[in-house]
Amino acid sequence: MDALDGWTRSEHTDDVAGRPTTHPVWRRGSGPGVIVIHEMPGLTTGVIAFGQELVDAGYTVLLPHLFGPVGRPFGNADVARTFPKVCVSREFTKWATGVTTPVAGWLRSLARELHAELGGPGVGALGMCFTGGFALAMMVDESTVAPVVCQPSAPFIGPPGRAADLNLSPADADVVRRRAREGCAVLGVQYASDPLPGTRFDTLAELIGDAFIRVDLEGKGHSTVTEQRSQQAVDAVLKFFGERLHATA
């Protein structure tokens, strides 16, 4: 059985790094909109299953496919094949600090389109691992009102400074600070023992203060809502979306 049976495929096009770029988008459900951005290596069965949990909770869920395979279980071989392609893509920042990933503009456009269709207060966005910070970058646009940052791992940790970097330009960081001051909270979820997010949650707390809702999970793991799924993490996400999307819809 295809993991995406019951989901409807479409495409979305917008400018990325100076060129029109099209990515497939799968959709299912009804209710307020949530965009789930998959982790490395692609749109895995774990990501799809989490998207279905959100559908079952009463959301219109979009699953954009940005890179890697579709509909396969997580596998290290897929990571090995996908990683080099992501590293040379102009759509993503991997190493540089103090810059926003170029694909953020495409994701903001997708969020605006979904918000225009569904109305309400705005849409939720959730990124994870390599795309963890993408949801934060989407917050720069007013259409995203419930950003969730799961185990953000870009830019890749290496020389000093990268482990604390939020994958945001200074201008975008200023907008995030302003929107947080105006009431747009950010949820962050990570395993406390996971080295890949570095100290980014400390940086985010410094940037937006009490508007940052931080969840540090006990135990060992990385993928908080997929491969090492934590019910505490999923419950925190559902509560966050419910308070900011359902309660005011």
TrEMBL record:
<protein>
    <submittedName>
        <fullName>Dienelactone hydrolase family protein</fullName>
    </submittedName>
</protein>
<dbReference type="GO" id="GO:0016787">
    <property type="term" value="F:hydrolase activity"/>
</dbReference>
<dbReference type="InterPro" id="IPR002925">
    <property type="entry name" value="Dienelactn_hydro"/>
</dbReference>
<keyword id="KW-0378">Hydrolase</keyword>
<dbReference type="Pfam" id="PF01738">
    <property type="entry name" value="DLH"/>
</dbReference>
<dbReference type="InterPro" id="IPR029058">
    <property type="entry name" value="AB_hydrolase_fold"/>
</dbReference>
<feature type="compositionally biased region" description="Basic and acidic residues">
    <location>
        <begin position="8"/>
        <end position="17"/>
    </location>
</feature>
<feature type="domain" description="Dienelactone hydrolase">
    <location>
        <begin position="30"/>
        <end position="148"/>
    </location>
</feature>
<feature type="region of interest" description="Disordered">
    <location>
        <begin position="1"/>
        <end position="24"/>
    </location>
</feature>
